[in-house]
């Protein structure tokens, strides 16, 4: 969920201050996300697997223990499938 905000921050920094932009793309926590996106590489395989496992664990928990309405479960599962497709093809 943080990627769009990081990309927006990088865009704003690039327009306002080269020093801030350089700081952001060389940051040890966030820099690799922005570089990978700009280079068209997407997420590394390890992060894709972690993201998908976490996604389906939380979706499964929600569908089994939290949500009782069948149509909401269907919506959650549809969202999960769409996000999975996006992550796998990204």
Descriptive report:
Helix 4 (about 45-65) packs antiparallel against helix 5 (about 70-90). The longest helix has 22 residues, at about 45-65. Helices cover about 80% and strands about 0% of the residues. The chain is elongated, with a radius of gyration of 17 Å. The chain is built from 5 helices and no strands. The two termini are about 15 Å apart. With about 90 residues, it is mostly helical.
Top keywords for this entry?
90 residues, mainly alpha, 5 helices, elongated
State the gist of this model.
The chain is mainly α and 90 residues long.
How would the blueprint of this fold be written?
Layout: H1 3-16, H2 18-25, H3 31-38, H4 45-66, H5 70-89
Helix pairs in contact: 1-2, 4-5
* C-alpha end-to-end distance: 15 Å
- Fraction of residues in helix: over 70%
Please write the string of helix (H) and strand (E) elements: HHHHH
Query: Please, how many helices?
Result: 5
Largest sheet: none
- Overall form: elongated
Strand content: under 5%
Which value, in Å, is the CA radius of gyration? 17 Å
Low-confidence stretches: none
Give me the count of strands. Answer: 0
User: What number is the mean pLDDT?
Assistant: 85
By secondary-structure content and strand pairing, the structural class works out as mainly alpha
